[in-house]
Amino acid sequence: MARTIIFKNISQLMTLRGAVKKSARNIQHKDLGLIKNGAMVVDNGIVSWVGRESSLPQKWPDAKIVDLAGENVFPGFVDCHTHLLFAGDRVDEFESRNRGVSYQEIAEAGGGILATMRATRKASEKDLLQLGQKRVDKFLAQGVTTIEVKSGYGLNQKSELKILKAARQLKKARIVPTFLGAHAIPKEFKNEEAYLLSLEKYLGQVREHCQRIDIFIEKGYFSKKRAREYLQSAKELGFAITIHADQLNAVGATELAIQLQALSADHAIKLSPTVIKKLALSETTAVLLPSADFYIHVDYPKARSLLDGGARCALATDFNPGSSPTQNIGLVGLLARLHMKMTLPEVFVAMTLSGAYALGLENEVGALMPGYKADFFISPLQWREFFYDSLPAPVSAVWVDGKKLRAL
Ligand code: NIG
Ligand code: FE
After folding, report:
1. CA 40–ligand 1 middle distance (angstroms)
2. pLDDT tens, position by position, 375-385
3. pTM of the predicted model, to two decimals?
4. Are the C-beta atoms of 182 and 215 separated by less than 8 Å?
5. Could you tell me what percent of the chain has a pLDDT over 70?
6. Model confidence at 280: pLDDT above 60
7. Which of 128, 229, 301, 324: disulfide with 166, CB 3.0–4.6 Å?
8. Spatial separation of the C-alpha atoms in residues 150 and 145, rounded to whole Å
9. 88 alpha carbon – ligand 1 mean position (Å)
10. Are 233 and 204 in contact (CB under 8 A)?
């Protein structure tokens, strides 16, 4: 028997109706699809009707009624770029960075990603799962219902698979695992070629655990030329592509993402006006990660040029122990408004529907329209009051697949 729930007594319901129609581009206030005194009907975890409570059809006599007590309803946030599964921390490195040592200098000295790799290799799958679940809960408490989780701190077959297996066991939120074996070159490999060849050998096995692949194309990490071959073989195995692109230097990685029809080009900071235009006209989503830029003192991406050119821009935390040791999506939205001049409607869409596009889930999550999964949260705050305080907005309760999560 179909299980129908009617959510009533909603002060304001954000559906993102216009944003869905416009494929998350050229977002304006009206695209938020706000409904005052709203109601929402959910059938077996899927939204089947949204509208004003006064026009609710009388066709569900057996439905369960949930009174939302005049709170506001929002689509769950989608964090489409995180490095959630790692062990250890980099607090000492943070202190050195604050004394003037750069992120790149730390990496060259064997710190950075490789330091986290050492700690993560030592952790068991169970340890990682425990650490990860706490972090998932922390995201859920902020209304983040979909979380992308990259591997990338194992950097050998055993440890990378361990991370991906742990990712698959994370509960409560919708988890999208991504293989980032090509995050850095561990010392036991003599060069990029040797390391990427080793990854190519076990890509088939990785494919059993996830459908997305990522690579860090950057000076001192992976070259565009070799990345192209690597990603092409991954594409043949059916992986969707995402790239850490042009974060610290202009290395042409965003253009490669466009050419390979990647789902997203992430960071996308060091872009020329020509590349900005190309990206804006492509189907590749620009994933902007301002908390990383804030922590490592680099430029913020040129969000205004991207958005005004018609690009689809997502915002994500890039949560990791090095460049973005924060899960605070309130901070991400605030930085986007303050330093990237994004409007508040643009920020909401960037953290929901555009994030879903970056994960290839744009028809499933990131909006509250008929056919979408009932992933949402309620807050006493109105949308206008979000991303103003540097703390995350208060969230009273969260639903995933139409099921209310117990105490967060
Ligand atoms: O997205 N740029 C590469 N990877 C991460 C940083 C990871 C780390 O420092 O551990 C990023 O910023
Ligand atoms: Fe990252």
Report:
1. 39
2. 999 999 999 99
3. 0.98
4. yes
5. 100
6. yes
7. 128
8. 16
9. 15
10. no
